[in-house]
Amino acid sequence: MLLNSLLLLAATAQASVLTLHAPRVTIYDSNGEGIRTEVLKLVEKPKIPLAVGLTDSLKLVFQIIEEGDTSGKGVQPLQTFLRFYDPETGEEGIQPLRVTPAGKSKFELNMAKPPLSIPPTTSTPLQVTLIIGAHKHTPLKIELFDLVLPESHPVAQHPDEASFHLLPAIHHTFRAPQKVPPRPISALFAALTLSPWAVLIALWIRSQVFPSVPHLFSPSILPFTASLGAFELLLFWYWVDLKLGQVLLYGGVLGVVTIFTGKTALASIGARRVARK
C-alpha cells in the first residue's frame, strides 16, 4: 500500500514538470523568405547568436506541454514572458506572450516596428529567456538564444534637457565684516551725543541749589525739555524700526515744535531777569 502511494506521488511529481515541444525560431528578410531557422534545444542555446537586420523579422513558435506527455495535449500556464537582457548595460525588457488553451504560442519581432519591451541595443547580443509560471506546475525558465539587433539610435535631446543636468555648486561669498571706528573715537562721539543731557541735568541740579535759576520743569520750560526728549525717542525708534524718510518727516515736525518751545523758554528766562532788576 505504501509502495503504491509512493509510486503515485512520483508519477504526480513527474507530470507537474513543464517543457517545450518543437520550439523553433525563424528569421525572414523583407520579402518574407526565410534566412535562418533554428530548432531550439532546451539543454543549450545556439552557439552562434541570431542576427536580425533593419528590414528583417523574427518569428518564435513553441508549444507548452507536460514533460513525458506524448498525447500532444498542451498546457495553458498562468503567465508566460520573454525576457530580453543586455549583460553589458544591465538593461532588460519583458514581453508577455499569449498562450492558447492548447499550449501554443508565438512571438513575432518586426524591426520596422519593434515592441517597446526591447531595451536599447548595443553591439552586445541580447540574452533571450523564456519564463513560464503556473499554479499546478513547476515554474520553467529556459535560455533560448542570443539575439543581435541593430544598435539603437541616440535619443533626440529635449530642448529643456539642459535644465535638468547637475549644475555647478553655488559658493556664497559673504560680505566683509563692517568696519567700526576705534573705541576712543566711538566713546568721544557718544559723549558728544549725550552732552546736551549732561548740561540739562547740571542746570536742573543748579536750579535745586539756587532758586533764582529757572527750574527745568517749570510750566514755561517743560515743553522745551519734553521736545528734546522726543528727539531722543525718535532716534531710538529710527534705530529699531523707522526708515530715513520717516525720521526726516517726524524730525521736521519736532524741529518746528522745538523752535517755538525754545523761544517760549528763552522769553520766560528773559522776563524773570527783567523782573529781578
From TrEMBL:
<keyword id="KW-0472">Membrane</keyword>
<dbReference type="InterPro" id="IPR056790">
    <property type="entry name" value="Ribophorin_II_C"/>
</dbReference>
<protein>
    <submittedName>
        <fullName>Dolichyl-diphosphooligosaccharide--protein glycosyltransferase subunit Swp1</fullName>
    </submittedName>
</protein>
<dbReference type="GO" id="GO:0006487">
    <property type="term" value="P:protein N-linked glycosylation"/>
</dbReference>
<keyword id="KW-0812">Transmembrane</keyword>
<dbReference type="InterPro" id="IPR008814">
    <property type="entry name" value="Swp1"/>
</dbReference>
<feature type="transmembrane region" description="Helical">
    <location>
        <begin position="246"/>
        <end position="271"/>
    </location>
</feature>
<keyword id="KW-0732">Signal</keyword>
<feature type="domain" description="Ribophorin II C-terminal">
    <location>
        <begin position="174"/>
        <end position="273"/>
    </location>
</feature>
<feature type="signal peptide">
    <location>
        <begin position="1"/>
        <end position="15"/>
    </location>
</feature>
<feature type="transmembrane region" description="Helical">
    <location>
        <begin position="217"/>
        <end position="240"/>
    </location>
</feature>
<keyword id="KW-0256">Endoplasmic reticulum</keyword>
<dbReference type="GO" id="GO:0008250">
    <property type="term" value="C:oligosaccharyltransferase complex"/>
</dbReference>
<dbReference type="Pfam" id="PF25147">
    <property type="entry name" value="Ribophorin_II_C"/>
</dbReference>
<keyword id="KW-1133">Transmembrane helix</keyword>
<feature type="transmembrane region" description="Helical">
    <location>
        <begin position="185"/>
        <end position="205"/>
    </location>
</feature>
